[in-house]
Amino acid sequence: MTRLAKCCCGKTQIEVSDEPAINCVCHCNNCKQRTGSAFGISAYFRHDQFQIIKDSTNVYELKNEQGKQQRHFCQFCGSTLFWYADCFNNYVGVAGGCFTDNPLPQPTYSCRIDNQSTWILLPDSVNRPLTQTDMETH
Prior knowledge:
This protein has 138 residues and is mainly beta. It has two helices and ten strands.
């Protein structure tokens, strides 16, 4: 199974194969700012599952306590579509909301629960913390 993810204007598109290795809801400030929302939905795919179909991206590099992150966003509409992060170095992160034609399955993990807004109530099946061990075993 393949899925297509695209930015708002369609000038940047990627394709992924199979299901994400890690599919999570993230409550870190970077994901909140990246999405303009209370959390981000992040799908992580192994590099061999990921292919750029149309590339009109600019790159914004961010450094914080978790290391470096390179966000690839459309130079025309500004949508962040994918990123590379030191803390997920075996994976490419893809913005979950960019899969509009064939949505992702429900997330199975939550990142940075300590930073979750108090009004957000997620199902227990999503509220499992993502650990370093989880990242290494997928």
